[in-house]
Amino acid sequence: MLYRLIVGSLLIMWQLLSxxxxxxxxxxxxxxxxxxxxxxxAYPRPAYGIPELTKAPKGYVPFHMEHxxxxxxxxxxxxxxxxxxxxxxxxxxxxxKLTPRGQQLLQxxxxxxxxxxxxxxxxxxxxxxxxxEIARRMTENFPEIFVPGTHVDAxxxxxxxxxxxxxxxxxxLQKICPELIVTCDASRTTQKILAYNSTDTVxxxxxxxxxxxxxxxxxxxxxxxxxxxxxxxxxxxxADSLDEKKLFEDVFDITVNAQSHDDQPDLYDLxxxxxxxxxxxxxxxxxxxxxxxxSLTGNRVPYNQRVLLRNFIESADTAMxxxxxxxxxxxGHESIVLPLTILMELNDSAVDLTDLETLASQWRNYDIFPMxxxxxxxxxxxxxxxxxxxxxxLVKVMLNEDEVTLPVKPVSGPYYKWKDLRDYYMSxxxxxxxxxxx
Length: 438
Fold this sequence. Notes:
- The protein is an alpha/beta fold.
- It has a domain at 35-74 and 125-202 and 290-435: Rossmann fold (3-Layer(aba) Sandwich).
- It is built from 15 helices and nine strands.
- Strands 1, 2, 3, 4, 5, 6, 7, 8 and 9 form a nine-stranded mixed beta sheet that branches.
- Helix 4 (125-141) packs across helix 5 (160-176) and helix 7 packs antiparallel against helix 11 (273-291).
- The longest helix is centred in the middle third of the chain and has 19 residues, at 201-219.
- The radius of gyration is 24 Å and the shape is globular.
């Protein structure tokens, strides 16, 4: 009897303490106030930490890295993002329609706008630090790769925030190991690989058609009344004279992107938890339609990054036959990291869903593409065998420095045979034109 009581109590405790699963009808994906920013989430949040890595199988050492990283934290992309909310609140202020909090907000937004001049789209000081810290952890996690004589080939899109992200990582790597052999490039040639503009017109057409699913989903979550009541003293004036939706979205973006800065004011008091959650749910659905492996877009969209994945494979093949240790680092954007992650089927990112109402319980954008997000493929070979076959090469993939599962059978933990993964990806890429006739 005592035994049954103890076992029963343990089972109850386990059920209470276990996290909700995707199958739980009562679970809806949640976002904290920082995660609610989706692509504006700063990387990494100290509260989440950097996971410990699994030791390589006995006798194996890393010798090569393939990488794609998003630029670090940045300013918003356009002057209008800072100008328009100020102009809207100034119009309301001229008619005496702002609450005391609205008046304070206007002054805060004016100061933020002034600071943004000449900076839109640029890397913030935090963005610089993020990439230096990522580079430092690369050398700590894989000291066997970053040694004198290793060739580090770095390429960036032509966008300055990506170039500066690359520059920071390279500077940190060379600070730690000055004897690295480094080459860098950022040109229209690299752009064709790192920010490939897909020629799949069918995928683009399907994605545009599917936009209405995300729009309908967002429309059901577009109650901004709590925000409006905090900022304005006359809701009718707002409804008749202002673009409520646009103002809400502009102030929301400035609020969630404050985590990209060291010194911007905290504006989260303007929003209820429900407003933050609803805005994230809407953005999560929109990003899934834009990049996800969903039947709503014919499962075609992730293949937009087929050129980049093939480049990963070809570059790795070259490294296999070279006696030199090496790392190929690429720098670009979240609009590439997201579909590439899905095309590579990292963790459960490639799940095919059509019900946006349950999407957030199984797919969350902030898990994939915060500022500074990155994919690292680490290749391992037998340590004490001067000659080895491709069958003996192992690979581990990390998303945001966290080990992931891959779509083939593992050898041990997060380690997989490169031949198995290569064959899987090449079959997938080679079958694209057959499976999806353009």
